[in-house]
Specification:
The protein has about 325 residues and is an alpha/beta fold. It is about 50% helix and about 15% strand. The protein has an eight-stranded parallel beta sheet. The model has no long low-confidence stretch (mean pLDDT about 100). It binds adenine (ADE) and zinc ion. The site of adenine (ADE) has 11 residues, from helix 3.
């Protein structure tokens, strides 16, 4: 990746950037035993049958994250890798319940993430936003309690809420009350929908939760009326091609619906989701779709431009980045 196109990453779980080497070193630092002797052994466990099988390892491995320093080191490592792949702006998810549920204080999580993100523009040339995700396979009462506990960081560190974890059987509508509160608090609203779940979940996320972006959304393609609506309303979809293959939502990258989504006029973006687990960061995803889906410069430029258009950046910043994308030399 000699000269990666400038891009915004809009679908990135910070816990999904935990590289095997860092997991092992944090385990050692915190005096914890992991059932893997080496980074290679750990990497060999990254074989997933579906979203649930991935989540089992994702939640297990993130138990090495204990202290404020752990979260700062995790985010700093991500930002360095992202910057090297052309990421200029990152809107980053985190899963507070996955940490507080095992006794890690929210202050440690947000203290560490806050430290890394606050310095990111200076250290890595990457601006950031932080999006608090609710776990949809946990009770709504837990989401509400998490939301209230995170209030001190609203508007400063936390600027949006999202919805993630096991999708099928957990439709968005159950989370209406907490999304209403988030809207009243002035936060941005996004939700995972249509990754493994049906197109109806996408419609529900839009109509019941009032989200501004859909994370994944690939199964929208099964419903032409929904596609027409997403095109008409230019609802951004944060698509994650390598993730979709590794979680077997799509059999092979060559079968990915991204070209059809672009063709339909959808506002699609390309993102990495959980790059440590799925084989690559944002630039790797751009390279993969270029190679495997035969996308040309015009499409890559459009994907990069879409990433800034779909971001929560102020319009003047979007305009500046769009100029950079238009002038980018793909070589
Ligand atoms: N791809 C994904 N889908 C749902 N929840 C997630 N949490 C982390 N990665 C996820
Ligand atoms: Zn995701």
């Amino acid at each position: 990746m000699i000269n990666p196109v400038p891009k915004a990453e809009l679908h990135l779980h910070i816990e999904g950037t935990l590289e095997p080497e860092l997991a092992l070193s944090l385990a050692a630092r915190n005096g914890l035993a992991l059932p893997y002797a080496s980074a290679d052994e750990l990497r060999a466990a990254y074989e997933f049958a579906d979203l649930r099988s991935f989540l089992n390892l994702y939640y297990r491995l993130m138990e090495v994250l204990r202290t404020e320093d752990d979260f700062a080191d995790l985010a700093d490592a991500y930002l360095e890798r992202a910057a090297a792949q052309g990421v200029r702006h990152a809107e980053i998810f985190f899963d507070p319940q996955a940490h507080t549920g095992r006794g890690v204080p929210l202050e440690a999580v947000l203290g560490g993430l806050g430290r890394a993100l606050t310095g990111a523009a200076g250290r890595h040339g990457v601006t950031t936003r932080l999006i608090l995700c609710f776990l949809r396979d946990e009770p709504v009462s837990s989401a509400l309690a998490t939301f209230e506990a995170a209030r001190p960081w609203f508007g400063t560190l936390i600027t949006g809420v999202g919805l993630d974890s096991a999708e099928v059987g957990h439709p968005p509508a159950a989370f209406r009350a907490v999304y209403d509160l988030a809207r009243d608090a002035g936060l941005h609203l996004v939700a995972h929908a249509g990754e493994e779940g049906p197109p109806e979940y996408v419609t529900e996320a839009l109509d019941v939760l009032g989200v501004q972006r859909i994370d994944h959304g690939i199964r929208s393609m099964e419903d032409p009326a929904l596609v027409a609506r997403l095109v008409r309303e230019q609802v951004p979809l944060t698509v994650c091609p390598l993730s979709n293959v590794r979680l077997r939502c799509v059999e092979r990258l060559a079968d990915h619906p991204l070209p059809a989504m672009l063709e339909a006029g959808l506002l699609v973006t390309v993102n990495s989701d959980d790059p440590s687990y799925f084989g690559g960061y944002a630039g790797d995803n751009f390279d993969a779709v270029r190679r495997e889906l035969g996308l040309g410069e015009a499409e890559l430029r459009r994907l990069a431009a879409n990433s800034f258009r779909a971001s929560f950046l102020p319009q003047e910043d979007k305009d500046a980045y769009l100029k950079e994308v238009a002038a980018h030399d793909f070589g």
